[in-house]
Specification:
The protein is α+β, with helices and mostly antiparallel strands. 29% of the residues lie in helices and 32% in strands.
Length: 155
């Protein structure tokens, strides 16, 4: 009889854990602006290291939440102002087994860090529109002048 109680408690705990994971996912999707993505966490083995999750657009940020996690905070936060797409390709090799056929892999760069994001081909259009719709970027080589304040003295 004692074994049945332990098994029953384990089953209830497992069901509560599954409910918590799916409830968290539903809460993230409730606010809108979410997409299904996979982010490559590790590049140790070619074609492996992909983590499925949800991308949530919040202002100038894309917040990546892992699919099977209880964490409230996102795993990665990508800022639109520093994010740039460098390459677009189809899944190759072992990646084709882990992703649906209509998905595309984007190789991005943010703050000098390389990153790969995979998403549906139709989602890429919206992602690139969001990326381009941000405020104009500082050219980098040219310093921006303050709009107000003292004017620098020129020799």
């Amino acid at each position: 009889m004692r074994i049945l109680e332990i098994v029953g408690i384990c089953v209830v705990a497992l069901l509560a854990l599954l409910f918590a994971v799916f409830f968290r996912r539903r809460l993230l999707m409730l606010g809108g602006g979410t997409i299904r993505v996979q982010v490559r966490i590790s590049t140790m083995v070619p074609g492996r290291g992909w983590s499925p999750g949800l991308g949530q657009f919040v202002g100038d940020e894309l917040r990546f939440h892992r699919m099977f996690s209880l964490a409230i905070r996102p795993k990665r936060v990508l800022d639109r102002r520093t994010l740039a797409v460098r390459e677009r390709r189809l899944p190759a090799g072992p990646e084709r087994l882990t992703m649906p056929g209509h998905w595309v892999v984007l190789r991005c760069e943010t703050d000098g860090t390389q990153l790969e994001i995979a998403m549906a081909e139709t989602t890429v259009t919206g992602f690139l529109s969001w990326l381009e719709a941000g405020p104009p970027r500082d050219p980098g080589a040219l310093r921006s002048r303050p709009a107000f304040g003292t004017r620098p003295i020129e020799p």
